[in-house]
Amino acid sequence: MRTSHSFQPFAPRARRAVVAIVLTFALASAVGTALTIWKTGPSKGQAAVVEVASRQRTLAERYVEELLLVRAGAVASPAQTGSLLTRSVAAQLTGGEAPPVNGDDDSTRLPRQDDPSLRAQLLEEQRLVHDLTLAGRAFLAGAPVEAVSLTGHERLGPLTPTQRLRVLAALTSNVSLDIARTVANRADRNIATLTRLQVGLGIGGLVVSLLLAWALVAATRRQTAHFQSLVNSSTDLVLVLSDGGCRYASGSVTTIVGQPEANLLRDGFLQFVHDDDREVVENARRTGQPQTIVFRLRSHAGEWRHLEAHLTDLRHDRHVRGVVLNARDITERFRLEQELTRQAQRDTFGTQLVEALEMADEEETTLGVVERAMTEISSVAPTELLLSDSSRAHLERAAVSPTAGAPACPVESPFSCVAVRRGNPVVFESSEALNACPKLRDRTGGPCSAVCVPVSFMGRSLGVLHATGPEGRPPDPQQIAQLTTLATQAGARIGTVRAFEKTQLQASTDGLTGLNNRRTLETHLRALIRDRAQFALAIADLDHFKQLNDKHGHEAGDRALRSFAQTVQRGLRDGDLIARWGGEEFVIVMPGADAQGAVAVLERVREALARAHHGGHPVFTASFGVADTTHAATLEQLLQVADTGLYISKDAGRDRITIGEASALPRGLDPTGAGDEPGVRPARSRPAFHDAVSDEDHEVSIRLA
Amino acid sequence: MQLRSQTVGRSLSGFRAAGGIALACIGLVATSCGGVARAVPPGTVVQVSQRDFAISVSPKRVPAGQIVLRVRNHGPDRHELIVVRTGSVLTGSAPLPMRTDGMTVDEEGLQPATVGVLEPGPTGSVRELQVRLAPGRYELICNMAGHFLGGMHTVIDVH
Predict the structure, then answer these.
(1) φ/ψ (deg, to 5) at A135
(2) Cβ A428 vs Cβ A437: under 8 Å
(3) Contacts of A182 (CB under 8 A, 6+ apart)
(4) pLDDT tens across B29-54, in order?
(5) First to last CA, chain B
(6) Is A179 within 8 Å of A125 (Cβ atoms)?
(7) CA-based Rg of chain B, rounded to a whole angstrom?
(8) How far is CA A418 from the centre of its chain?
């Protein structure tokens, strides 16, 4: 009754029914036994009564015979026989010992007779025996037998003494026979009554037991039905698997599968399990292991439901004889987990993509990252990135999936692309559909599906990311999401890189001459000094530039500056650098050269400059001051040394090259440790240098061509 | 036997003792079966009373025709009833002829004169014997051993 603990409402009824059945049987048995005792009790010892009654018959006959024998002179003892008759009938009536009869039997114990009719018969017999023995004694004594008064209601007619004796004996005998018959009949009746009572009792007991059993069955049914309802209404799925296959499937299983239980029993259930999961389920059925399994079940709608089942091995429980699977439909949870995983993958992809793109500082490397990302999204879907050129009128193929190649969209102009026009990703299920992009039709690979994601930066279209797939099966939502991420991030990066490159170019060059600007050169110079490299440095200044501007206009001044820059660049060696330092000043750096070498190079430049002045350009010259790393240790000192050279060149009449003097450096700044030398023009600070080169005092000599 | 005998009103002790449904059913069947023969018997009713060892009738004279002998045995022993026409060619006015045992009437010899027989019945039983009696004298006897000679005989006159 283990279940009664968990199922109180009906258990007491069942228990009561069982107790009532047992009690009914016990009662029926007890009543049956009592009836048997009651009914058979009076018949106990009645065999002796019958025996004595039949003996009385013989004794009565014998008594008369013995009387006649004695009268005839033979030896007989009628008195003894008469005594036996009298004592026997007394014993029959009151109970006790019936005397033994020689040659017949021993003394017999008789019960007392209480039955009124039998007692009446015995009393009658006693009276007849009395009459018989009295008549017998009269007969032996020779007295008149008819004179003996009769007590047994017999009315004897005119008979001879012998006849009288014989009639009395016959009556005694007949009454004795009747007594035996009465006893036997009474026993018969008792047995018949007992049989009827027992049958009645049996039927009654049977009916009551059947009613109680019916109640028990009803209670059990209710109990079973209750459990059945609990199991069936539960969302949990219960299955019992045994060697013969499925032995039980709860209502929730049949509801999911949409089949009656009969179709799931034995091998039926496995038909609905996913092919890949059958082995798992079979193994669980065989071994009862592991504790938890997950498998897929085909629902009536044809979709796969994911079930998580906990196993209970009850193969040795004779009530179950199988492995019980308590399963729960975890499809929604499974999908959510999948979605979360996908989201995490997307996030990971996005994070990795951003990191990779951050490391790409040029458009070229950015496109490399884009190509690798294409493979990451799908190694089989042809993918390409089309970017507009600087004119923003043409789309060019900038990146192609390294593994799957390009889908080769024939679109030429950004505004011919529907995705670019819309500014949103576009998915085409089939290139053959009415609303498909016309650019998808007639591709070499035949009909296809496609995704087109616009690439833009700061609201300006850069191009389109395009991927294709088999017809009717475009890239899945996850891939579309990843493609969108790629388009967004790549657009942002390409836009940034392009803007950066442009800004960088602008920042590092001089807008007028196209030469490096002062800051760029300073960066180079500091790097050289840091590396303790040997180099020569020259400061160039256009002679009488202010006058040139004033006389011929700024346009002519600018042309002169550009012309000077081009001439110097042509004359320099590979690796030499020139930068516009400001105004009409230029600084030239010659790595590896000393001051003398620099002078030689600059001489050629100066000559080239003289030759270049033709074609209507105002002729101009330039003065140079040179220093090298032997003159000073810092950039500032080096510039000061070169500046002194320039000063000397200007002072000496311009259009010449002079090596500066380290001795001109102020005290404490001399790298050689030499002190100030008198007579030497003191070095100026950089602003002074600027002032000097643009000094109004300088004489201007301009020769017009 | 050309004469119908039946037992009526047997002891109801069996019914009293039977408490069970089954017995009630059996009793019901028995009662309904007996119901067919319980039609009121036509003819003159003669009360016949038997006891150890005498037979008495009332009335002693009845008209000829259908006669119902209602025989009650007061006991204490079993008794039978044989109705024999006397004063006929066979019996004449002489006493009934006896068998050679000297104890019982010669039933076989009296067969042609016998008009009705009731087999031995137990104490307390009431039975009916229907006979069609022509005018004459009839002797009613119990022929169990010694009973006739012990006094169990009487006569009834039919006129």
Answers:
(1) -65, -40
(2) yes
(3) A117, A118, A121, B122
(4) 444 444 444 455 578 899 999 998 99
(5) 26
(6) yes
(7) 17
(8) 42
Helices A545-552 and A554-571 pack at an angle, to 10 degrees, of: 140
Written as one letter, the residue type at A292 is T
pLDDT at residue A69, rounded to an integer = 94
Q: Determine which of A155, A189, A194, A201 to mutate to test the interface with B (most B C-beta atoms within 10 Å).
A: A155
- Contact between A134 and A140 under an 8 Å Cβ cutoff? The reply is no
Q: Which two tokens stand for residue A496?
A: 């940034």
Q: Which residues pair with B47 in a beta bridge?
A: B58, B70
Alpha carbon distance B150, A153 (integer Å): 8
- What is the three-class DSSP state of A15? helix
pLDDT classification of A65: cutoffs 50, 70, 90: very high
Strands annotated E in B54-113: 54-58, 61-62, 65-73, 79-86
* Long-range CB contact pairs, A359-365, < 8 A, 24+: A360/A493, A360/A497, A361/A497, A361/A500, A362/A497, A362/A501, A363/A494, A363/A497, A363/A498, A363/A501
**8-state DSSP, A102:** T
- The burial of A18, by beta-carbon neighbours within 10 Å (0-12 exposed, 13-18 middle, 19 or more buried), is given as middle
Rounded to whole angstroms, the Cα distance separating A679 from A666 reads: 12
Cα–Cα distance, A688 to B14 (Å, whole number): 158
Q: How many residues does chain B have?
A: 159
DSSP string, A161-230: HHHHHHHHHHHHHHHHHHHHHHHHHHHHHHHHHHHHHHHHHHHHHHHHHHHHHHHHHHHHHHHHHHHHHH
Q: What backbone phi and psi angles, to 5 degrees, belong to A378?
A: -155, 130
By CB atoms closer than 10 A (0-12, 13-18, 19+), residue B94 is: exposed
Spatial neighbors of A308 by CB under 8 A, at least 6 apart, are A292, A293, A294, A327, A328, A330
User: Which helix or strand (DSSP H or E) is residue A240 part of?
Assistant: strand A237-242
Integer Cα distance of B80 and B147 in angstroms: 10
Give yes or no for a contact between A41 and A51, defined as CB atoms under 8 angstroms apart: no
> Measured between CB atoms, does A195 come within 8 Å of chain B?
no
Strand pairing class (B79-86; B136-141) = antiparallel
Which site among A38, A150, A154 would you substitute to test the B interface, given the most B Cβ atoms closer than 10 Å to its Cβ?
A154
H/E element, A388? strand A383-388
Q: Cβ distance A376 to A349 under 8 Å?
A: yes
DSSP designation for A625: E
Sheet strands side by side (includes B5-8): B5-8, B126-133, B65-73, B44-51, B54-58
Q: What is the ipTM of this complex?
A: 0.75
Residue A384 Cα distances to A38, A47, A373, A582, A602, angstroms? 113, 124, 11, 47, 52
| Global pTM exceeds 0.80 | no
Six-digit token string for A226: 């209750």
Coil, strand or helix: which one is A641?
Answer: helix
pLDDT tens digits for range B81-137:
999 988 755 555 567 888 998 889 999 988 888 999 999 998 899 999 999 999 989
Nearest CB among A171, A181, A200 relative to B150 is that of A171
pLDDT band at A190 (very low <50, low <70, confident <90, very high): confident
Size of interface A-B (CB pairs under 8 A): 102
Give the B-side interface with A, CB within 8 Å. 14, 17-23, 26, 51-54, 75-78, 102-103, 122-124, 144-147, 149-151
| Rounded Cα gap, residues A226 and A687, in angstroms | 104
In chain A, count of helices (H) and strands (E)?
19, 18
Distances from the Cα of A519 to the Cαs of A187, A391, A587, A588, in angstroms? 147, 31, 11, 13
